[in-house]
Amino acid sequence: HELARDGIQCRLIDKAPHRAMESRAIAIHSRTMESFELMGLADDFLAVGQRIAGVNLFGGKDPIAHVDFGSLETRYPGVLGVPQDETERLLGQRVAKLGLTIERNTELVGLSQRGSGVSARLHKGGLIEEIDADWVMGCDGAHSAVREQLGIPFSGSTYPEHFVLADIKLEGEVDHNQAQVWLAADGPLAFFPLPEDRWRLIIINSPPDWKGQPSLAQCQQLLNERGLTRLRLADPRWTAVFRIHRRKAGQFRQGRVFLLGDAAHIHSPVGGQGMNMGIQDAFNLAWKLSLIVRNIGDQKLLDSYEAERKPVDEAVIRQTDRATRLVSLHGTVTRFIRDHMMSLLTRLPGFEERLGEGISGIAVNYRHSPIVEDHAGRAGGLAAGDRAPDAPVTAARGGTAQRLYELFAQHRHVLLLLGDPEANMAATPPRYPEEVFSKYQIVPAGISGGDYVDRDGVVARRYGSAPAIYLIRPDGYVGFRGDWDSATKRLPNYLAALFPSAGTAC
User: Is the pTM above the cut of 0.70?
Assistant: First the structure.
């Protein structure tokens, strides 16, 4: 999608004969929705999704805690429940509008690299096609043919428990705006709201001899065994039983080939992170690859993909592993201690917010990336590598209300100059073509000379009140932070290193 927006020719192949027909991955977290907004897709997903405002947690039949995601500082607090078939439909429609056709029933059967490109062999309809490409992005799942062709190891292990999933209706009094999780002695069980008054049922620790698609009666049996006899299941559209794994690729890049999503990492579905991680992998890489293909960016941009994403993905594998083990405890004493501690933790000030930030993805940062620089001269607050938060602003001319994310949704870098321009006349940012970045001056209320006014002080609260400059990347992260002196002393060198072929605008 992002490459096509820049007019870059791509081929999108898929071994499957059609898009997903089942709900499968359903959770779209806040950071992914913010990314969709930067792509121009957020409203499409809001129109079809079911908002999940929080989680009710039970120990057996008794309430343990409630976690509310409403305090997150984002336009998209909570989780959006969207069946995967809908997600694929929406994305497929958008790439079609950009002129891309998804080539179904097309399998990669060979891959080799040379210095200046990649040769691939495709199998479709009994025919073999040989093609040459400059770059290959392997987004082909846990059994990735791209990864196997490269010989990259996929190390890890398999969980002993069997998982049951079902897309189902639920008869009984349950709040459809909240996820419901029961930590039962026989194994945890959860319901997550979906559109059309449906639910995603997840049960851990089903009988190991169950195969294929469990029946409605079998799923109801597992509810009854966990003491939830007041709830009745109905109208199953899809059920499945499977084992889960935690694995990661030895490397995310080999030459001109990249691995993304499940091709690079898989983990427990607890927390609903899988699809979100794949989308963030792709959003991180796409703008960098676009700048390289258009002969604007330096190769170090591509080197940063693994440096930025691999630590994040490894952290998610660790966190989901711990969460899976925690909710799957069987001993009476250990479960009592767990339930008591969870009840206490959720009452601590700030715990809900920190938990929500972690699950939602808005706490992810790239502070240790080789392509971010921080020259602000002060510790704390928003730093280079952090997610750039949204905030309301008012146009200095005309008084139109806007948000920062509307300014960021240009698929290029955005330079924000924050503070009184009269007090910082010596700060002169370098001039670059608009294909590199746009520039906006944001001033406090009562100050003239800016492009936008921080009328309510939200920009100052989220970005800091001291005069500063921020270079926001196309993926919505801070690439460079500095004080006003940095505009003339540090920023030019940073830009020249990343965009050596762009030159300055005259």
Answer: yes
